[in-house]
Design a protein that fits this description.
Length: 149
């Protein structure tokens, strides 16, 4: 396939991602959090906690950065580490009472902030975009599996 065909798609995908993260990040910072900190708070919300591996698998945070982000949230009193009852070698990261309160306030507020930006996009357009992005993700996942084989 010629790059002339897919380069406009890649440029738009990159520009859309940058616009989305810029818009969301500025709102997250008004809550006194960094985007990675919010990612952890949002991921742990409504759960009994997660191991570091689970947290890494469910967030957009790289393994090397995760410990530092959790450390800073712990210093803020928003998360705590507890022993994993199923595996004594690992710890579970949980929201504290303050962390749960922050999640209950910040997560719906952030969803509302995102909803404001998406208001001009119709439900059918969202469905079409979702299907298109799913197709794109599947193409890259398939190509990655083929590269590993």
């Amino acid at each position: 396939m010629s790059p002339k065909i897919f380069l406009p798609l890649l440029r738009e995908l990159t520009a859309s991602y940058q616009a989305f993260t810029g818009y969301g990040s500025s709102h997250i910072r008004t809550m006194g959090l960094t985007p990675p900190q919010f990612d952890i708070i949002a991921t742990l919300g409504n759960t009994a906690g997660m191991s570091f591996k689970e947290l890494g698998d469910n967030t957009l945070i790289t393994k090397g950065t995760l410990t530092g982000v959790v450390d800073r949230l712990e210093l803020k009193g928003l998360v705590q580490r507890v022993s994993n009852a199923l595996d004594g070698r690992s710890q579970i990261v949980q929201l504290t009472e303050a962390g749960n309160a922050l999640f209950a306030q910040s997560f719906p507020a952030h969803l509302q902030h995102i909803a404001q930006a998406l208001a001009p996009v119709s439900a059918s357009e969202m469905q079409t975009l979702t299907e298109g992005l799913r197709t794109l993700r599947n193409a890259f996942e398939t190509a990655s599996m083929e590269d590993k084989a």
